[in-house]
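S.,

Sequence below, as promised.
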Amino acid sequence: MASCTCFLGRSPLQPRSLLPQHHSQQGLKPHVDFLCKGVKEGTRVRVTRSIPVYHAMKFKGGLDLEGKEGEVLSDVSQHKGKVLSSTLPYRIQFMVPHEEAGEVKVIAHLNGTEFEPL
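The prediction came back faster than expected:
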């Protein structure tokens, strides 16, 4: 029986779902406040905290995105003019060097407190 190692095991890092959520004084989610600071599609960003991802097939042991630079592909917190309750609203594409495959494209969803614009 084949097994998928992408989601098996437990990371030594605390999952983002267990981290405390910080809300602004107006009661808005952090990504809404961050969006007002000019984060749009095409903006270059850098990840500011440790975020392990396990869905990148070339990185079998997982990949930590901390310090990686990428480009915002889209903000999925709105659809057809309606605000959605997405907890990780920014789709960000990273080009990560890999010893065998050259550069590997990795797309991850992040919230506005996990990265900074460049």
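The first helix runs from residue 30 to 35.

Coffee later?
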